[in-house]
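tool=predict chain=A
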Amino acid sequence: PLPLLAAVAAPAATLWNYNRANFLYDSGQKVTRTYTSISYQMQQFQLYRQDVRDLVALTAEKMNNYHVVACLELGMTATLLGPARLPDDVPEWVLWHQLISLCAAFVFLVTSMWLATRAAVAAGSFNVRLQTQYIRLPLPD
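tool=predict ok
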């Protein structure tokens, strides 16, 4: 029985070890390729997310600049409406023209400030929506 067992075990060991080194090497390469692919996908989506953040920051910064300029011009308009006066010998139609123009400018500047604030808030909320719903990191299951 022992020589028979040895006769059966030798071919079985040969079959077991046949191409085992290549199989283990290929398995390691497959795992490395999978993890490298996941790493590249993560880097790609992080770049997408950074691009969205940069565009939103650009929009918010531009709206903040508009907000500052409109606020300064609104202060000048309020000054012209209040303490600043035209000389007494100016015709009445010029006074009315100035008053209507300044009131219209005041309304447009307030509207500009409101829309700039709204655009900055909308850009921020769109950033959150894109980051959480559309540009999610591709994590494996």
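The chain has a mean pLDDT of 92. The chain has one domain: 2-134.
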